[in-house]
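Run log // design_07
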């Protein structure tokens, strides 16, 4: 009901896991790295364990991993592990499409058939990974059975990698003395905590942007209350935010503050308001009835008037600055922070031309993404009028834009009306594409940076040879950062390895600014 009112193309806070809406906080990136470690080269045949409270995003991360599975890897995903040992083995065989014709269904024959299949895949150079979700619900006998599966091996390799995903109770379960043999085989553990306050705000803004929003309807107090009510649990954030948007629509409220969010949280929790309980349900029902009876006239009036700004006798100076912000002026500002760049080279490089010594990438992101890149970038502004301006830093609820040698503080909420997530990042770059088989100082430099990369550091030899193991690590690193996982080191990979950061000023971070 509220999508058109808030300028959305779809509902942004559905609780159905949708990889398109995924927001990866630092802790989610760390958790994803652990999962990719298990799916990829790591694990050494042991278990990888991921735990987290209900609604923190474990299943969503699992779906992200499934979208990034290498071609030489086959996944068996068990979503309902409340099975006997025999049922569990049958479920694994079913996921791997192992025919069971000719077996009597006994544990021994199921395990023999699975072992034969794993040996065949190993001979083909393929990996097989078993992922068990909601693993805290497994019985002791079922856990013992999957421990026995790790005994399936050749003289040099384990045949099956196992990832256990579950709620915090899984940690308690595996700490029992009778399961110590399994616990000792866990080679990587990670516990996924809820989002903090800043991450919650970035999460909300990210999902709204994906849903087509040009501005965030929640004001600062609304975001703060949303964090307090949800305690940073993404699923609760979704439910409460969705209900608050419905309430805002019912009240024809252009901005959603703390009052609407707290009322939505009480409704979600099944509590009633101290003043006339359940007013939110009543307001929504009344609004729906009005729309039906009046043929949508009231809603149409609201839609026609929601974007009208309040009368203001004097516009802030930064508004005039944004109307003057052009691409040439932005390139001049960007070249000023990179002495090795010529502003006349940046424009064609960002236009797709190959310019020696210059790299330029066109990216899409949000404020959190920009802070993660931590480099001066050029924001592409939408009409009216279109323009380009250099981002120099952040200051509380403002961003710092640089134009004509002067820094301007612009409220993020106001800039969101003009910035839809398009950005350009340019820096001096050697331009050489590194690949397997290369060697020399450039490869050594990349390996040195890779060894310090978080949360997936390169643990192999830091030498000058680009071997197969390093190529596989590069592909894992690329998948982690959402770039093409071709195993080649080009500008995008160098950006996330931190190559430009060695010579560039970081974004300003003036927390005490106005």
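design_07 sequence
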């Amino acid at each position: 009901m509220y999508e058109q009112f808030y300028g959305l193309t779809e509902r942004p806070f559905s609780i159905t896991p949708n990889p398109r809406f995924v927001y990866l906080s630092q802790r989610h990136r760390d958790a994803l790295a652990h999962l990719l470690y298990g799916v990829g080269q790591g694990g050494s045949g042991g278990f990888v364990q991921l735990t987290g409270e209900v609604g923190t995003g474990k299943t969503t991360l699992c779906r992200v991993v499934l979208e990034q599975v290498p071609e030489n890897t086959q996944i068996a995903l068990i979503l309902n592990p409340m099975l006997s040992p025999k049922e569990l083995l049958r479920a694994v065989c079913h996921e791997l499409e192992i025919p069971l014709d000719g077996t009597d269904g006994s544990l021994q024959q199921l395990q023999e058939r699975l072992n034969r299949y794993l040996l065949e895949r190993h001979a083909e150079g393929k990996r097989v990974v078993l992922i068990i979700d909601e693993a805290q619900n497994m019985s002791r006998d079922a856990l013992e059975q999957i421990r026995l599966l790790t005994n399936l091996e050749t003289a040099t390799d384990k045949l099956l990698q196992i990832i256990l995903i579950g709620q915090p109770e899984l940690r308690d379960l595996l700490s029992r003395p009778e399961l110590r043999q399994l616990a000792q085989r866990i080679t990587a553990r990670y516990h996924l905590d809820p989002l903090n306050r800043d991450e919650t705000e970035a999460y909300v803004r990210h999902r709204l942007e994906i849903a087509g929003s040009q501005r965030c309807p929640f004001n600062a107090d609304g975001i703060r209350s949303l964090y307090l009510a949800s305690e940073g649990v993404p699923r609760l954030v979704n439910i409460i935010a969705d209900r608050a948007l419905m309430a805002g629509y019912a009240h024809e409220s252009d901005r959603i503050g703390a009052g609407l969010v707290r009322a939505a949280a009480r409704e979600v929790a099944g509590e009633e308001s101290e003043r006339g309980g359940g007013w939110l349900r009543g307001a929504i029902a009344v609004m729906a009835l009005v729309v039906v009876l009046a043929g949508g006239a009231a809603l149409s009036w609201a839609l026609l008037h929601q974007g009208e700004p309040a009368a203001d006798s004097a516009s802030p100076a930064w508004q005039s600055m944004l109307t003057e912000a052009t691409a040439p002026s932005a390139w001049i500002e960007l070249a000023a922070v990179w002495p090795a760049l010529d502003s006349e080279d940046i424009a064609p490089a960002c236009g797709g031309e190959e310019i020696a010594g210059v790299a330029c990438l066109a990216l899409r992101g949000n404020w959190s993404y920009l802070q993660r890149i931590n480099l001066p970038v050029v924001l592409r502004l939408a009409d009216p009028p279109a323009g380009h301006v250099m981002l120099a830093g952040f200051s509380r609820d403002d961003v710092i834009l640089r134009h004509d040698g002067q820094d301007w503080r612009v409220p993020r909420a106001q800039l969101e009306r003009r910035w839809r997530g398009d950005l350009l990042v340019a820096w001096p770059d050697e331009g050489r594409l590194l690949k397997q088989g290369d060697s020399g100082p450039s490869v050594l430099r990349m390996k040195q940076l890779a060894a310090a990369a978080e949360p997936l550091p390169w643990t192999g030899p830091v030498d000058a040879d680009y071997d197969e193991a390093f190529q596989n690590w590069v592909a894992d690193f690329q998948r982690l950062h959402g770039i093409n996982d071709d195993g080649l080191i080009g500008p995008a990979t160098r950006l996330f390895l931190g190559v430009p950061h060695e010579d560039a000023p970081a974004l300003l971070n003036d927390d005490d600014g106005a």
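The two ends are 37 Å apart (CA to CA).
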